[in-house]
């Protein structure tokens, strides 16, 4: 089930895309299976740009979808590049299911800023891979800045899974996150590629809890990415390990 789906967009980088401003989306569905898919907005077009601002997304039984799903898979050649920009918006009310607020697995640029993600209670199924923002293979460049993530249970705030990109997480607040079986309370990075450069700076981590790291978990045991983590504030971190856990001998820089 999809409220708005965009499947065109061969050359729409030169002509625009879709703009969503000052809208309210509310899902009143109370039944969903783990393998079902629901999205308020799904972008499935090649090189389709979308910009969302001043909008509210309430609830949603997303399953394998998300409040916003960005998904275009090209089986040959070079993946397309597109823009997903979200600002000054509110996402709230996930309750007892698996889908994230934002799911992106298309090659392109993501800019998520000045938005609020709160009140997400994922299914308590020991999956360990639930997150408010889920970035999967084929990313290119993402910036998460000036956002607030709060009151999240049974999942982390941000999950990067095999994302081949530069990723900047700057000046965000991560508050009251109990990720339970998720490896990291706020940020989880797994299966990175050797070209990854991930920067986390000027963030505040308050009252976060994860399985192996209270705030940030990095699994880079196979490849050689680079991480710069500096000028962050950690308070009230509970672990079942430490604030930042990094499973590799590759380069990681703290200041």
TrEMBL record:
The record's listing under InterPro entries reads: Pectin_lyase_fold/virulence (IPR011050)
Where does this protein come from, organism-wise? Answer: Streblomastix strix
Q: Tell me the classification of the organism that encodes this protein.
A: Eukaryota, Metamonada, Preaxostyla, Oxymonadida, Streblomastigidae
Q: What is this protein called?
A: Right handed beta helix domain-containing protein
Q: Which domain of life is it from?
A: Eukaryota
